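Worked example 3. Consider a protein that binds DOR.
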Amino acid sequence: MVNGEFVLRGGEVVDATGRRRADVKVRNGVVVEVGEDLDGRRVLDADGCVVAPGLVDLHTHLREPGREEAETVETGARAAALGGYTAVVAMPNTEPAIDTAGVVRQVLEAGARSCCDVRVAGAITVDRAGTQLAPMAEMAELGVRMFTDDGRGVQDARLMRRALEYASALGVVLAQHCEDEALASGGHMHEGEWSSRLGIPGIPSEAEELMVMRDIALARLTGARVHFQHLSTAGSVAMVGAAKAQGLPVTAEATPHHFTLTAAEVASYDPVFKVNPPLRTAADVAAVREGLASGVFDAIATDHAPHAQEDKEAPFDQAPPGMLGLETALSLALTELDLPIEQVLALCSWQPARVAGLTGQHGGPIAEGAPANLCVIDTAATWVVEPERLASRSRNTPYAGRKLTGKVRHTLLRGEPVVVDGEAQR
Ligand code: DOR
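Given these inputs, the predicted complex is written out as structure tokens:
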């Protein structure tokens, strides 16, 4: 099966070069022909669908090692494939943290057995503690191209400067979870009207914006690339837009929850709406959407953050932050953003592939000789999110019961159909 021949028939191919009606023939993991009326030993129906490069998630928590009750590389990769992803970047806030070559190797080995191309982000600092640089070079030697202390931002500006200089020399990118811990301390939701009404301590927008401001300054000082993770405020969007206009080497991602949900959801006191950075105001949601439309954001990233039910079903102030994302991200973008599908796919596939250094394997044009990492999207299909039917080991989606338009029909990883007709094949 892995080395079989397939024709994706009847679809419209959409990639960075444009859109055209064409069948796609795949053999031995590679696209061998793109054209009209192709025959093959096995046909996968793409009638009425868009055939696109597989999606790339810059921000996935797979919880392995250490929190396998919430997710494993295997279950997270399956959720990714069902969501149309052929590559994900696993975050290093595992237990232990991914801060040495040994842990990188462990996650990559589990990834190699899974139904998605699992890449790894290494930690910037030892144990993500923010005091001492992690051995980035030994991780980079194993192919790690992104480093972050995600879940935390690097608080010490001097250490961040040194990390940027080191990253620049290694040719890797630093990704920052922007949060000034002193200012955010004690907060559980966005600070504003709803935190006052609900009596829940807040996290001001400035906790994020101060670090965005600082790291733009450090990008200017060092000339090193900085990738801003899960930006959530109008102020952050404006600052990154201005930095890009000045030609600074910055990129940024936004999550589906920050373009679809506001702090008003917290009125339910349901911890499923607790996330970091927190859900913000309607004006922030509008700014994030505008940033996606205008090119301030390079990527939609899921921040897929599974948590076991017994952990998440705690009082709001005690529950861990985080939401599932892999199986709903593309559908939310197609349903909620008023953008042409080419732009949605740019944000979900070829632009994040570039940020992660995966060009050549993921997100590239669908043409003869290209690796067959593909997804087929039924753009007209409607479906309702049912938490118990998700492939993730956890259930903490904030979208239960929501009707979405657009669904992944097939996903091919290196030519292997890992999802067929919306069903995972292994
Ligand atoms: O909500 C979040 N959950 N934000 C983070 O930065 C970390 C993540 C997690 O690991 O659960």
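Take a moment to read the result before moving on. The mean pLDDT is 98. Residues 106 and 266 are 37 Å apart (CA to CA).
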